């Protein structure tokens, strides 16, 4: 790893790093074990703890800040899927396509919130 990559990583915020970059940072820290099995949230917590960085906001606050919880989004997914099935029974292709896109967006939001 070159000096430029190390400098870029230091300048980049930990929250903005990819899992691969976080694993490299964690691997440099001697006291962290099992970094390859950790998820992003676990890696962030472990690195911050090792460096003595206090957590700015707990994860629960980030979910509440978004205004919706994962549980609410999953309930919305169930409702959208039910509507999509009704549209399939009515053979309404336009509505099926609209609902497919909505379901896709809600799934993305769910993943984004669960990673935060």
Structural class computed from helices and strand pairing = mainly alpha
The count of β-strands is 0
C-alpha-based Rg, rounded: 20 Å
The termini sit apart by 29 Å
Name the quaternary structure. Answer: single chain
Secondary structure: helix percent: over 70%
If you had to describe this structure to a student in words, what would you say it looks like?
The two termini are 29 Å apart. This protein has six helices and no strands. The longest helix is centred in the C-terminal third of the chain and has 23 residues, at 93-115. The mean pLDDT is 80. With 116 residues, the protein is mainly α. Helix content is 71%, strand content 0%. The protein is elongated, with a radius of gyration of 20 Å. α2 runs parallel beside α3 (40-51). It folds into two domains: 3-56; 61-115.
How would you summarize the topology of this molecule?
Layout: H1 3-11, H2 19-28, H3 40-51, H4 59-65, H5 70-90, H6 93-115
Short recap of the structure:
The protein is mainly α.
Question: What labels would you give this structure?
Answer:
6 helices, 116 residues, 71% helix, mainly alpha, 2 domains, single chain
């Amino acid at each position: 790893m070159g000096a430029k990559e190390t400098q870029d990583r230091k300048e980049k915020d930990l929250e903005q790093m990819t899992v691969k970059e976080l694993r490299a940072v964690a691997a440099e820290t001697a006291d962290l074990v099992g970094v390859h099995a950790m998820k992003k949230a676990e890696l962030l917590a472990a690195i911050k703890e090792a460096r003595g960085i206090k957590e700015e906001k707990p994860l629960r606050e980030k979910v509440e800040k978004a205004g919706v919880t994962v549980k609410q989004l999953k309930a919305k997914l169930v409702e959208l899927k039910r509507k999509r099935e009704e549209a399939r029974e009515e053979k309404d292709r336009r509505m099926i396509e609209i609902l497919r896109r909505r379901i896709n967006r809600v799934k993305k939001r769910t993943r984004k919130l669960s990673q935060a």
